[in-house]
UniProtKB/TrEMBL annotation:
Gene3D superfamilies: PGBD-like superfamily/PGBD. This is CHAP domain-containing protein. Pfam families: CHAP, PG_binding_1. Residues 143-239 form the Peptidase C51 domain. InterPro entries: CHAP_dom, Peptidoglycan-bd-like, PGBD-like_sf, PGBDSf.
Amino acid sequence: MQKTFYQKELLIKATQQRRGVNNNKKDIEKIQSWLSLFSMQNPSSGTATGIDGDFGPATERAVMNFQKTKSISQTGIVNQALFDLLASPMKKAFTGTISGNNLRELVINVAKNHLMNNPFELVIKQQSNSGPWVRSYMDGHEGTPWFWCMGFVQAIVDQAASIQGKNFKNLMPLTYSCDTVGTTGLQKNILTRFQVARNNPALIKPGDIFLLQKSLNDWTHTGIVIAVTGDVIETIEGNTNGAGSSNGNAVVNRIRNFKQAKLDFFSIQSLV
C-alpha cells in the first residue's frame, strides 16, 4: 500500500496512565480520541471524554469504563495491548481480509469494510476534520481546512489495488483534491461527464469514482460507486452525512440521483 499512515495510528510510544512518567500528549490524545469514538457506537459506555492530551481523572475513569465493557481488569492504564482494543476498528478496516474476483469487486468490498468500522471525524482543539480516521486517510493531515473525501477514496482504491499488487498512482496522482483527479480524468479520457452518463447509464460502473461538479473544471465532492439501479447510484463516501454534504463528518452509504445531480464519473478501468 502507498497510503500507510494508518500504521502510526495503531501505536502508542509507551504505557499511558494518570501521573505516568512516560506520558506523551499525542498518545493521550489518541487514547481520548478512540474513547470518544467508542462512545459514539456505545453511548451507554461512559467513555466519552475531552481530547486535550491530559491524562487526568476523567480520562482514567473513561479508560476504566472501556475496560469494563471488555470484561477486563479496570486499571485505568493504557498499554499497547489495551490500545490495540481501542483502535481495533481501524486495524480491521485497513488490514482485514478482503475478497473479490476483480479490482472493481475489491474496491467495493474494501469500501464496505471501512464503512462497517464506522470512520468518523472528531473536533479537536476546535478544529473539525480531525482525529485518527482523518489522519489515516489524509496521510497525517487534519484540521478544519482538510476536507477528506478524496483522501478516503484514494485509501480505498489504494488498498484494493494493493491486494492485486497494483499501484493506484498509475491511475491518478496522490492528492486530496477533487479538481486534480477530475483534471487527470479529462487528460486520460477516462472521465464521463454527467450529460453523457445521464443518457447512457451503462457507462457508470460499480467501483468507479463519482465527482460532484460545481462548474466545468471544478469538483467539490467525491465517493465510490457501489451499485447502479435505474436513475440512482448507491455510494460509499467520506466526509459527508445523511444530507450529502461535502464537509460532513463520517463515511456514509448514500443514494444519489445521477439524473438530477451533476455527477461526473472517473473510470478505474485502466487499472483493472
